[in-house]
Amino acid sequence: MRHVLGLAVLCIPAALLSSASAQGPSSFFNGKDATGWEGLNEYWSVKDGTLIGAHEGIKFNTFLCSKQKYTDFELKFQVKLTGSGANSGVQIRSKIHDQKTFAVTGPQCDMGGPYWGSLYGENFGGMMKAADAKLVKGVLKENEFNDYYIKCVGNHVTIKLNGETTVDDDFPKMPADGIIAWQLHGGGAMQVAFRNIQFKDLAEKK
Questions:
Q1: Helix (H/G/I), strand (E/B), else coil: 171
Q2: In sequence order, what DSSP letters do the residues of 100-149 get, joined into one string?
Q3: How far is CA 196 from the centre of its chain?
């Protein structure tokens, strides 16, 4: 067990991060370990059903990546950022381009600073749709858990922050499918916690 930014963290054994277990919609995230996911195990952990990414300072962005690819889906969760300048996000329909650092390419539903609720292209052209700053300021709960909602159907993406829609648009350059990945941003010491993760694979309904 280690302590990061004042929170006790139960480290995931490397074997769990490299598990080859089959992953289906009901086991998107099992709340116990990282089965079905891959990443740099020293930065990721699971505690009491909460997925935690934390570091004391790194120079690169790294991600916990699904081994399965997805097309259309809904994803709901609560997220809390801790640390000065803390930043995170969730990649959708993305791909790993550097296995050493688990760096990815693709659209990202952003979190942190002025980027909350935006759709950003990580190594994918930059900002795709910025959320309205005034709207975000009015609903964001700083240093607390915030409700986050993502829906991706075809090339249409909807993002909601604490129930308010921040992105709802078509994006012609959206990839047809890809992984989902949780971001741990580089920079100073920070922590991101994701809890109450709920996933629905909409492609199975077609």
A1: coil
A2: TTTEEEEEEEEESGGGTT-EEEETTTEEEEPPPHHHHHHH--TTS-EEEE
A3: 13
pLDDT at 22 over 50: no
User: What backbone torsions phi and psi does residue 25 show, to the nearest 5 degrees?
Assistant: -55, -35
- Summarize pLDDT for 126-140 with one digit per residue, the tens: 999 999 999 999 999
Residue type, 108: Q
Neighbours of 129 (CB within 10 A): 18
Cα(47)–Cα(162) distance, integer angstroms: 23
Beta carbons of 158 and 28 less than 8 angstroms apart: no
And the tokens for 206?
């077609």
Task: Determine the distance from the C-alpha atom of residue 16 to the mean position of all C-alpha atoms in its chain, rounded to a whole number.
Answer: 19
Question: Quick check: 3 pLDDT over 80?
Answer: no
- pLDDT band at residue 205 under the 50/70/90 scheme: low
Cβ-contact 156, 12 below 8 angstroms: no
pLDDT value at residue 27:
75
Quote the CA–CA distance of 81 and 54 in Å, as a whole number: 10
**CA-CA-CA-CA torsion for 84, 85, 86, 91, nearest 10 degrees?**
180
Whole-number average pLDDT of the chain: 89
pLDDT, tens digit, 9 for 90 and up, residues 42-77: 999 999 999 999 999 999 999 999 999 999 999 999
Identity of residue 33: D
Contact 81, 189 (CB under 8 A): no
